[in-house]
Amino acid sequence: MNLKLTIVVVEEDRDRAVAIVDALTQSGDCEVFVIGTTIGLARKIAAHAPDVVLIDIDNPTRDMLEELTLASGPLERPVAMFVSGAAGSLARAAVEAGVSAYVVDGLTPERLKPVMDTAIARFQMVRQMRNELAETRRALEERKVIDRAKGLLMKAKGLDEVQAYALLRKAAMDQGRRVADVAEALVTASGLLS
Amino acid sequence: MKTVTLPVAYMPLVDAAPLIIAQEMGFAEAEGLALDLIAAPSWSSVRDMLAFGRVDAAHLLSPVPVAMAMGLGGVTTPLSAVSVMSVNGDVIGVGRELEQRLRDIGYGFDFADALKAAQALAQVTKDTLVFGAPFPFSMHVELLRYWFERSGLSEKQIKIRTIPPPLMAEALSTGEVDAFCVGEPWGSVAVDQGAGALLLPGTAIWRFAPEKVLSVRQDWAETEPEKLGHLIRAVWKAGQWLSLPKSKTTAAEILSRPSYLDVSSELIDRALSGHFTISSRAEQRTVDDFIGFHAGTTNFPWRSQAKWIAHRLSLENGLSSSEAQRLGGAVFRSDLYRKHMIGTDADLPGASEKLEGSILHITAVASQKGELSLPPDTFFDGQIFDPDEAH
Q1: Cis omega (within 30 of 0) for bond into B185
Q2: Is the pTM here over 0.95, yes or no?
Q3: Which residues pair with B7 in a beta bridge?
Q4: ipTM of this predicted complex?
Q5: CA–CA separation, B236 and B377 (whole Å)
Q6: Is the Cβ pair A39, B45 closer than 8 Å?
Q7: How many CB contacts within 8 angstroms connect chain A with chain B?
Q8: Cα(A24)–Cα(A28) distance, rounded to whole angstroms?
């Protein structure tokens, strides 16, 4: 068989989708379509009659794809999340990397492997970037709250910035809590009292 | 006592309460367990995490492990349902347009009579009716299909589409679905957002439907009997605590936290108390036993419940019922439940199967300790399911 593989990637974020499509196209002879996560997903996917459907494991619309596994019409192709035989370890690696793949029945592991190897690597990278971004955002948010708490203490108790931070840190240590949590409690309480 | 950490997946729903309460109120700790609770974004994700070993136990839709044993769906790793975590707890609702059409014919939204509701729906349905449900293998779908079939509603063109509950309000407003069946708090959320009105509680179709099961991998159940015993008992004690009237406010507060359901405790309280606001006109309805976590034999995984699910799935998928019941019935592990609950306060029934739908009133049956009361389990059409007779 030297027919092109048809792959559908379900991904809302355009940049992420482009990165995945580029990698897949480079890895082999395949045609890749991207579908955003919308209502009516299963029907839109079925219209492309794909061999493989890739979707982020954390995507809440994933359950809509489960309908594909039940396709029973004469023109519909049954899809399975491959788990048995030679593809089993691929499936496990995919789940760990955060991608789930729905594969048309009968697609051999030999044809599937290059696609999955690429998808796994790419999703892993995307996931890592997303986690880093979330972590950075959280750190920024916390810093903002700590700054506000310091400001409140400086104003209320006539402290300088270093003293205000020292007071926050001491309160956190005494209560066995994080500085950011104490700062947030202070900001919330002061909002209620003002 | 040293605690063992156990990763457990769940979907953020009111009926995940036994796991959340087991951890938060110390029932897990008393059994030497620390539950590492992982909120999943979808049911496929819960199933995959369990099947591929990312977690050791999960809050799962009761038909999922049965369907998997029958070879239906994407994954077929053998799972065991070791106890029933909750009975009932679903609501059926309609979008604004259908609500208006129902009001136009004078339908009173009694939130009780399944047959009347079906007749009213049939009267206002022109050609097709599309229902949204959270997952293809779910009690939601089984209740809907049973209701359509036995009420004459199936004479209309009806479709069921999978819609994740958080997207149900959007699906209603775009017209992708006309009506829905979801677990709480999502029905109340839809009402609160002005997306629709509630038509029936799940209990109006089947009064004792096994909704969610505590599920583990079959091989894990064999290799980790001690952990399994601790887990079953911790969840059982949490269900007992949840069944106390005085626990409801605390339970609603805990469930509403951002790390769990992240919806207001007032919305969660509706399911726990059975006091519903069914429409944006603020109409109030009360349902007895809307959701059950403990009473009678709630947590006992009756083989006949699994066989009912398997039988229904076999009809829908053109499979042999006796074969489906053989494969699917074995998934509900009444044997393991007995083994691990002996020596607790829990009373165990003498039998592992019952005639589903045969109990009209609270009935005392023979049990290990003498007498145990079974709650009513009737279907709206009065039919009785006898596993041995069903084909």
Answers
A1: yes
A2: no
A3: B36
A4: 0.78
A5: 20
A6: no
A7: 83
A8: 7
